[in-house]
peptidyl-tRNA hydrolase
Amino acid sequence: MYDARYLIISLGNPFAKYKSLHSAGHFAINGLPRVLNLPAFREVKYGKQRCQVSEGDKYTLIQSPTFMNVSGPFVLQAFKEACERHTRRTLGLLVVHDEMTRDFGAVRIEPWTRSSRGHNGMKSVKEYLNSESYPDVEFARISIGIGRPRSKKPQDVADYVLADLSQQQRDFLENDAPAQVGVRLSELAYHWENKWLRRLQRAVMFEKPSVVKALLNPSTAATTQSATTSKGTTTK
């Protein structure tokens, strides 16, 4: 039946050196193994680069090892590797990132198609990974609200997202954010499974055996599609 696999990639600057608000996604995913009962992160090669990975039967968690503004190439390669390892019809990609347009502490599901709203990491990802090339894959984002400075001057914004964390900010990102991300994952899983069930019911109702077979046996029915890597392509 429905056998979902979830690839969850956090964006930020290299976590070992840059522990700031801009790496809120890394903080949230770093604590996720204890929420999802997964192995601890370890450094392995994934997406053609060495990176921190925690992998279980249902979830693959990855901390992007690149700088935020050039996240796209790595996310694309990691996604392509996941497509090779798992059937795309049951694969969901979630990108976890910081979000200045949300109040600090707000953890929200964001539609993949929503504008990047000035977030250069998501802008880079969407430039390299065209979701329309993978109609059988579910795509979503989970944002970690970090608030924003009063000034909108580029340098003031950069200083804000790259500044050292206060103890209160660090406590939330390390202790509370992972649990909230886990809740959002459960909500997405429920939504995506119901969506799959509705597709199956329609296929049975309208006597479409090929669709039923594809849904119940995706590994034998999935077609091969190459990733679209055309930089600058707009994703609807």
